[in-house]
Amino acid sequence: MVILGQKIKVKMRIKRFNEEIGFDDNELKARFEIPNLMGEFDKKLPTYSKPVLEETTSSFVKKVLYRYPVLERFHTNIQNIDSIEVYNLYATSLEPKEGMEFYAQLSLAFNNSDYYCLAVLRGLEDFDDEDKWYKNDITVESVDETFVFVDAFLKACKGLNVVGKSHLEEGRFRNN
């Protein structure tokens, strides 16, 4: 009788664990939850996330995208400039503001233990007149310092209707 009670407790813990890690949709439940509860789960599956051992531009961008999920809605372009990988995230106004549409771009790179961010804000029609562009960049040694810059960039995007107000509400950013 005691053994049956212990098995039920273990199954309930596994069930709670599965619900917390995302076995909530029916396809994943059918594929993973039942075999897991029956002890048939494949032990060779990789971990959900491997720790970052060495910072790269890609890992830096993943940190920024995790913290600010609204940036996943931006278009992405990856370039190699002087053998440095640079991610360009760009978008245009969702709707015109005072009759004007805007373009916003955030460029991110990591090189030699420095994090680099560049923000470009301009009118959509001003692509060939750099004098009318607002450009600001930083080079810092801490990823946390880049979050302050990205936060300011997104607030400027909100003012230009590049991102909606609902995208920047409290609780929409992770790890704040």
Q: For the largest beta sheet, what order do the strands appear in spatially?
A: 1-2-3-4-5
The domain count comes to 2
Percentage of helical residues?
25-40%
Strand content: 15-25%
List unreliable stretches of 5+ residues. Answer: 170-176
Report the count of strand segments: 5
Mean pLDDT, to the nearest integer, reads: 80
How many strands, what sense, and barrel or not for the largest sheet? Answer: 5 strands, antiparallel
Q: What pattern of helices and strands is seen along the backbone?
A: HHHEEEEEH
What's the short version?
The protein has 176 residues and is of the alpha+beta class. The chain has helices at 2-21, 26-37, 57-67, 143-159, and strands at residues 75-81, 84-92, 102-111, 114-123, 134-140.
Please describe what this structure looks like.
There is one protein chain. The protein has helices spanning 2-21, 26-37, 57-67, 143-159; strands at residues 75-81, 84-92, 102-111, 114-123, 134-140. The protein is 34% helix and 24% strand. The model is unreliable at 170-176 (pLDDT under 50). Helix 3 crosses helix 4 (143-159). The protein has 176 residues and is an alpha+beta fold. The radius of gyration is 22 Å and the shape is extended. It starts with a helix and ends in a 17-residue tail after the last helix. It has two domains: 2-37; 57-168. Strands 1-2-3-4-5 form a five-stranded antiparallel beta sheet, covered by helices on one side. It is built from four helices and five strands.
